[in-house]
Give the backbone structure.
Amino acid sequence: MTACSDKSPSTPSPVSREVVLAPGQTAAVTEAGLTLRFEGVSGDSRCPGDAICITGGDALVRIAVIPTRGGERAYALHTGDMRPVAHDDVTIALVELSPYPFSSRPIQPADYRATLRVSR
């Protein structure tokens, strides 16, 4: 004998949220059930705004995703292709990395800001 239920399986609510983070900073995205942490930038080889380059270069943006139920995972996002990453049922995309480099002005690691979009 089988029983029928009038409850449909719950579907996750849509999420569309942008956060701007400094290195080491976190932001809770409660709608997605996770917290994002901007770990930092490594290998910033983007072409300076005051230079002429053959290629646009790339910067590696390191983030950690911490679900409310545990199990932290690390991801790398690239400015060169801006390809998002998938974490469970959400997508995390790098929207912008600032400041943009100039050859006359070195960027200190603490000066970076990553704009991230979480969507479902």
